[in-house]
Design goal:
The chain is α/β, with parallel strands linked by helices. It contains seven helices and eight strands, in the order H-H-E-E-H-E-H-E-H-E-E-H-E-E-H. It has one domain: Glycerol-3-phosphate (1)-acyltransferase. Strands 1, 2, 3, 4, 5, 6, 7 and 8 form an eight-stranded mixed beta sheet that branches. Helix 4 links the parallel strand 3 and strand 4. Helix 1 packs antiparallel against helix 2 and helix 2 packs across helix 3.
């Protein structure tokens, strides 16, 4: 468990003001998001030419309010397929959406999480059940999203970490991209996410992992001093057809993600 410093009255006041700002932002942008999504369904079906811009604006404002700056190296791909990265925190959703209009692939349990689940649903997250019997349905859902032009993103580690390491990538979700009709067109782009904590905080301050409760961690981030940084490194895309199977693709994506971590975090 990451030790959370005691919050002063000034920190509590700052946190309260930030919370008000976040609520006001959500109150303004959520109705707009829902309105645009309704229009998109009527005229564009699954395609979302407008609403992702609202989602991106929301997360950019959130990061500004929280005092977290983002740096990006490389560029998100425009090819069909998915971005895959290491997973350190619920903040990954904020950081990656702020820099790239992307749709997350997430385990179905996330849909029921307080706050995060609501935001994920509003942002168009694709929820799936990680079970062998669901493989065919998963492939169909991924194919439909890719046909609609959705850039996708998932976390192959299968769980979040303290942000100071990268876990082995699970190959399960990569299998869908080897399906006939997807393999030749699909690409996988590795992205590395690295957090630098605010001055004086634990290096793993932004990590949300293990049995950590969401509310205390959110409160700690909300009241933290400004100065945190999230650094994103988008690596060159990998063509799915160049790999013999899902395991080989997952291992190469993992290797590349590790190269974007600071040397002391590559274990």
């Amino acid at each position: 468990m990451i030790p959370v410093p005691r919050r002063s009255w000034a920190g509590r006041l700052s946190g309260a003001l930030r919370m008000i700002a976040l609520i006001c932002t959500l109150a303004v942008l959520l109705p707009l998001q829902l309105l645009l999504r309704g229009v998109e369904r009527v005229f564009y079906g699954q395609a979302r030419p407008f609403s992702p811009y609202v989602v991106q604006a929301f997360f950019r404002i959130c990061l500004f309010v929280l005092g977290i700056r983002t740096e990006m190296h490389g560029k998100p791909m425009t090819l069909p397929g998915a971005v895959v990265g290491n997973h350190a925190s619920w903040l990954d959703i904020f950081v990656l959406n702020a820099r790239h209009r992307v749709f997350f692939i997430s385990k179905s349990e996330v849909a029921g999480w307080p706050v995060i689940g609501f935001l994920a649903r509003a942002a168009g997250t694709l929820f799936i059940r990680r079970a062998a019997r669901e493989a065919q349905a998963q492939t169909a859902a991924l194919g439909a999203r890719l046909s609609a032009g959705h850039p996708l993103l998932f976390f192959p580690e299968g769980t979040s970490t303290d942000g100071l390491r990268v876990l082995a990538f699970k190959a399960t979700l990569f299998e869908a991209f080897f399906a006939p009709g997807l393999r030749e067109a699909a690409h996988i782009q590795p992205v590395t996410v690295v957090y630098d904590a605010p001055k004086g905080a634990d290096p793993a301050f932004y990590g949300w992992f293990g049995d950590m409760d969401f509310a205390p961690h959110f409160a700690a981030v909300l009241t933290a001093r400004r100065g945190g940084v999230a650094r994103l490194t988008y690596h060159a895309p990998l063509k799915v057809a160049d790999f013999a199977n899902r395991k080989a693709l997952a291992q190469e994506a993992e290797r590349i993600v590790r190269t974007g971590m600071p040397a002391e975090r590559r274990g």
